[in-house]
Amino acid sequence: MDTPITIKEGLLLIIGICVILLLIYLIRVVRALLPTLKNVEKITDDAGRLTGMASDAAAGAEDAVNSLMESTDDMADFIANNKSTVKALVSFINAVVAIKQLFNSK
């Protein structure tokens, strides 16, 4: 029982064997890459959480800076509107310090 194989059939047989071997190799590669892909997913999730935390902290810092700016503006307005009171208070403090120095020098 002799079956002749043509060159075309021989080439198709060799190509078929190569395709099967390539599929086996690709399956092994994908199986090896699955844990790596899971780790990459975890890292991406962690990076997303850290980015969210940094964004929240930056927003909080911006709110604090805005609040500080408003307080500083309010204090500047208060001092500008009450210059005479501030001058009187500074004069009173200077007088108290002068009296204290007078008694300490004796």
What does this structure look like?
- With 106 residues, the protein is mainly α.
- It has one domain (8-105).
- 92% of the residues lie in helices and 0% in strands.
- The model has no long low-confidence stretch (mean pLDDT 88).
- The whole-number mean of residue pLDDT values reads 88
Spans where pLDDT lies below 50 across 5 or more residues: none
Number of domains: 1
Tell me the series of helices and strands, N- to C-terminal.
HH
Topology:
Elements: H1 7-81, H2 83-105
Provide a brief overview of the structure.
The chain has 106 residues and is mainly α.
Comma- or semicolon-separated keywords:
mainly alpha
